[in-house]
Design goal:
Order of helices and strands: HEHEHHEHEHEEHEHE
Strand content: 5-15%
Number of helices: 8
Radius of gyration: 16 Å
Bound molecules: zinc ion
Largest sheet: 6 strands, parallel
Length: 205
């Protein structure tokens, strides 16, 4: 269950998290979760390059260990890396100590100031633990989730959702995962084309 547009109530409940960036500039912040995955991440990198777009990749530690060359390629292309835990843990169902240790295991590999909790689900106690261990850490949510992981969504619906809800300063979630690929492959180049034509640029967080 998810909403394409993040509800205001959630933003109000978690004010210390980042939900979107400045609404006054024509910039979109694309984010890709759950990689790096061979072929899928590589497709994303190639597509971004052809639009001269930069993005942020919230990587799973376990995938970095499995696919170090793809991970290096993301950095080499000038994109930003974010922490997405080592094993894609669901915060609401995980003990705080386990959660923090899993976060740290991924942090060793990512060395970043950006964290996105898997599923967007994190307890307030886990937020405080992370913030006290890493005061510079920015916890990044989103204001648009494309639903590319949703097998019931057609590629065209995924694309339509994404362009309908995105605006200046939006943080948009795609997934560089095998599950999302059918929709990602269709929606991403069209999304980039649509907003490039409207004069937007795409930057890292
Ligand atoms: Zn994820």
């Amino acid at each position: 269950m998810y909403l394409v547009k993040s509800p205001l109530l959630l933003k109000w409940y978690y004010p210390s998290l980042t939900w979107n960036k400045s609404r006054s500039e024509k910039v979109i912040y694309l984010t890709f979760d759950d990689g790096p995955i061979p072929d899928v991440t590589t497709f994303v990198l190639k597509t971004l390059k052809s639009f001269d777009a930069k993005a942020t990749f919230f990587c799973i530690g376990d995938n970095i260990v499995k696919h170090p060359d793809v991970f290096e390629q993301i950095k080499k292309d000038g994109h930003q890396i974010g922490n997405h835990t080592f094993n894609h843990l669901k915060g609401w169902k995980t003990e705080d100590k386990t959660y923090l240790n899993n976060f740290k295991a991924c942090q060793k590999l990512t060395q970043t100031h950006l964290f996105r909790p898997p599923y967007g689900r994190i307890k307030k106690s886990q937020i405080s633990e992370i913030k006290s261990a890493y005061p510079e850490m920015q916890i990044v949510m989103w204001d648009v989730i494309t639903g590319d992981f949703d097998l019931n969504l057609s590629p065209e619906e995924c694309y339509r959702n994404a362009i309908k809800h995105t605006t200046s300063g939006s943080i948009v979630v795609f997934h560089d995962s095998l599950k999302a690929f059918d929709r990602l492959e269709y929606a991403l180049p069209r999304f980039l084309q649509y907003f490039t034509d409207k004069g937007f640029s795409f930057l890292t967080l």
